[in-house]
Design goal:
Layout (H helix, E strand, L loop, with lengths): L15 E4 L4 H10 L4 E4 L6 E4 L2 H8 L3 H10 L4 E4 L6 E2 L10 E3 L3 E14 L2 E11 L4 E4 L5 H8 L3 E8 L3 H8 L8 H9 L3 E6 L2 E4 L4 E15 L2 E2 L5 E2 L2 E13 L4 E4 L5 H20 L5 E6 L8 E6 L5 H11 L5 E5 L8 H11 L2 H4 E8 L11 E8 L21
Parallel strand pairs: 1-2, 3-17, 4-11, 19-20, 20-22
Antiparallel strand pairs: 2-3, 5-16, 6-7, 7-8, 7-10, 8-9, 9-16, 10-13, 11-12, 13-16, 14-15, 18-19, 21-22
Helix pairs in contact: 2-5, 3-6, 5-6
Length: 410
């Protein structure tokens, strides 16, 4: 299989073509106002950008993503170290040549499709991070308390990190998953790809071939810069905080690279955060006694906090609730519905809640739970959680619960 970045997936006529915009605020407005995938052309520097892409190309890239993802967790693929290919060149670019975008007056000069690549043990850790330009050769990186932060904290001063952008669907999905320990994302991507992932080693840096641009430099533990404000997945504010500085050494580039811009809290952001977690819940429930048909991490729950699960009737919804919350600890609410309800339709789910649920009997509240730091109503990540049971024991033979007319399309 050919090694590829995101540009090879942008030839479809379903993606709109716009002229390159040289103003970062206008790029941000373009991203905010777009309602579907787009890419740009005619960049003076040769670097174009795109938006709202991954939530389209990832489903298109796999005929059965659920099966492939479960297999990738159980049987990881292989990563092979390779030399720099002929079409990847050391460039003269610096950050002033890169099309960062800005939203409003305060969220300035950001990239949101950047993935950190670092060696850890016998593997490599991949994770998405937003990336704010400070000068032609420095940026500040938002790092949450997970694997990259742990590796950085173990260092005495700084670590070499490659930040890639324009990753292929497999690499992007691999970088979005949450593993228990650092490393394993590239092996997951290789299994999805059904081929080896070729990893380039250049001096102190590692990066996969399946991307467009690579920023090689050092993440500095003891040099902090203000980052933010920005917008979280819930569309609420993530305030200014001091974060590690990234000092650029050089940039590798493919010919005519394309940089993906991910709108914060938009559908693409929700897909990249929510879909790997949805697949993880499916994988966990397949090993249980419950016969689950479909799962949605809902748009209204920011693809993160609320889930709807359709399944065959069970009396053990209390046990099922605890299992689901353990598979996705950030989840705040889960609703169980019969298989006649479309889990992706908020209207149908609300109808099931209003006609098949009695709160005193069918709602369970779990207090003093570890939840999501992205929920602004939580107290330092502590929250209450709840499950809503709308399951009818035998919907086909329970006439009073069965909907007699279909839902109207509006």
């Amino acid at each position: 299989m050919n090694h590829r970045g995101i540009s090879q997936f942008l030839t479809s006529e379903k993606f709109k073509r716009f002229d390159y915009n040289e103003n970062s605020k206008e790029r941000g407005n373009q991203l905010f106002q777009a309602t579907s995938g787009f890419t740009t052309e005619n960049s003076p520097s040769g670097i174009n950008y795109c938006g709202h892409i991954y939530n389209s190309i990832i489903p298109d890239a796999f005929s059965d993503l659920e099966t492939k993802a479960i297999s990738a967790w159980e049987k990881p693929g292989t990563v092979k170290i390779t030399d720099l290919p002929d079409d990847f060149k050391l460039s003269d670019y610096n950050f002033d040549d890169i099309p960062f975008f800005s939203l409003g007056e305060s969220m300035t000069d950001y990239l949101t499709g950047t993935v950190a690549v670092i060696p850890t043990g016998n593997s490599w850790n991949l994770s998405f991070h937003r990336f704010q330009k400070k000068s032609a050769d420095t940026a500040v990186v938002r790092i949450v308390d997970r694997h990259l932060n742990a590796v950085l904290n173990e260092s005495s001063d700084k670590i070499p990190v490659s930040f890639i952008t324009g990753a292929s669907p497999e690499i992007a999905l691999g970088a979005s998953i949450s593993l228990k320990t650092p490393g394993g994302e590239l092996e997951f991507a290789a299994s999805l790809k059904n081929d080896d992932i070729h990893l380039i080693k250049s001096d102190e840096w590692f990066f996969p071939e399946d991307c467009e641009l690579v920023f090689c430099g050092y993440l500095e533990k003891n040099c902090l810069l203000p980052e933010g404000p920005f917008v979280d997945i819930t569309a609420t504010s993530d305030f200014i905080r001091n974060q590690p500085r990234f000092s650029l050494k050089h940039i590798y580039s493919r010919p005519h690279p394309v940089i993906p811009h991910i709108l914060p809290s938009g559908p693409e952001h929700g897909y990249l955060m929510g879909e790997p977690r949805r697949l993880h819940i499916i994988s966990g429930l397949k090993k249980s006694e419950f016969n689950v048909h479909d799962i949605s991490l809902t748009r209204g729950g920011s693809h993160w906090l609320y889930a709807v699960i359709s399944l065959d009737y069970t009396e053990k919804t209390d046990e099922l609730s605890e299992l689901v919350f353990s598979l996705h600890p950030s989840l705040k609410k889960v609703t169980f519905v019969n298989t006649d309800i479309n889990v992706n339709s908020s209207e149908q789910v609300e109808w099931a809640e209003s006609t098949r649920c009695q709160p005193h009997r069918d709602i369970i509240v779990f207090n003093d739970q570890l939840g999501s730091s992205l929920d602004p109503s939580s107290q330092n990540g502590q929250t209450s959680k709840w499950s809503v049971n709308t399951l009818v024991k035998d919907i086909k033979n329970s006439e009073k619960y069965r909907r007699q007319l279909p839902f109207l399309k509006v």
